[in-house]
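User: Design a sequence. Structure:
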């Protein structure tokens, strides 16, 4: 049985499953869920993609055919998402995180990766990740830190993958300069201005679109309104999160708004895309970035 760790602050409560990818299993204001609820059946699956949110580390999105070249070395990873030939979202979401320092309203989870033997198939660089969840009176703050503990430079990206309930009339608004268009392999092949279904510069009903796209030039702010609940969420992300992925699958009762630091498959696109967003960490270098979800009750 999975142990659930709960944080509280005022009206807010956050349930966490450190052993299931460091995932959030519930985020509530009072008795109202503002992220997708994780049912007992979902929890029993021990699958982070069935939870309310999980961290994306040490990169987000897909690596094409689970292979890449970096600093003169060829690397092959073990595909980690069903029948897909790609490698998805790093290994943090498939790992058990250790519980570090904690209080009533904050906790830090820790994940060490030694990259030896079979572990190299998950990521070929030695590293440490720290994931802090903190509840403020009206906000959830999520912070990811990665330290390169390898003797070589390491490519690195960060992100968060929250699932929100797709309720009647739910709207989404954010600004971006471009949207990446993917081919049938789900790998981005071109980008264009965000027009039509891709334009969220004004609030748009989530139910009106079907999307699974990464946006570049993300302005760092996304607003979600649940009219039937009289609640609004404001997602604000550090400058490191230059991209945002929006996932609205057809016929589902959820959608995702994911602040991320780089484009999908960035590790294979660095020579051709100058603003790919991926960071290169020198040995012992560390990157830290946060995203906040503020909750507001509407009149």
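Assistant: Done.
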């Amino acid at each position: 049985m999975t142990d659930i760790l709960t944080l509280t602050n005022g009206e807010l409560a956050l349930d966490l499953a450190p052993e299931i990818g460091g995932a959030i299993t519930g985020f509530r204001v009072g008795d109202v869920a503002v992220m997708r609820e994780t049912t007992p059946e979902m929890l029993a699956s021990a699958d982070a993609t069935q939870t309310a949110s999980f961290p994306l580390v040490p990169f987000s999105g897909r690596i094409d055919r689970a292979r890449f070249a970096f600093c003169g070395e060829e690397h092959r990873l073990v595909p980690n998402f069903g029948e897909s030939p790609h490698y998805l979202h790093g290994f943090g979401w498939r790992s058990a995180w250790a519980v570090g320092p904690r209080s009533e309203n904050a906790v830090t989870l820790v994940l060490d990766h030694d990259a030896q033997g079979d572990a190299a198939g998950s990521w070929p660089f030695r590293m440490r990740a720290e994931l802090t969840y903190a509840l403020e009176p009206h906000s959830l703050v999520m912070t990811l830190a990665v330290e390169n503990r390898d003797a070589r430079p390491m490519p690195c990206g960060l992100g968060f993958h929250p699932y929100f309930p797709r309720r009647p009339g739910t709207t989404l608004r954010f600004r971006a300069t471009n949207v990446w268009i993917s081919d049938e392999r789900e790998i981005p092949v071109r980008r264009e201005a965000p027009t039509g279904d891709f334009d969220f510069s004004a609030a748009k009903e989530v139910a009106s679109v079907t999307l699974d796209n990464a946006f570049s030039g993300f302005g760092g702010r996304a607003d979600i309104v649940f009219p039937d609940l009289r609640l609004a969420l404001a997602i604000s992300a550090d400058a490191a999160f230059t991209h945002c992925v929006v996932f609205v699958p057809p016929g589902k009762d959820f959608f995702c708004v994911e602040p991320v630091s780089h484009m999908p498959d960035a590790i294979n696109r660095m020579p051709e895309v100058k603003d790919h967003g991926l960071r290169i960490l020198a040995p012992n270098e560390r990157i830290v970035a946060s995203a906040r979800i503020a909750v507001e009750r509407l009149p």
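The first strand starts at residue 5 and ends at 9. The chain has a mean pLDDT of 97.
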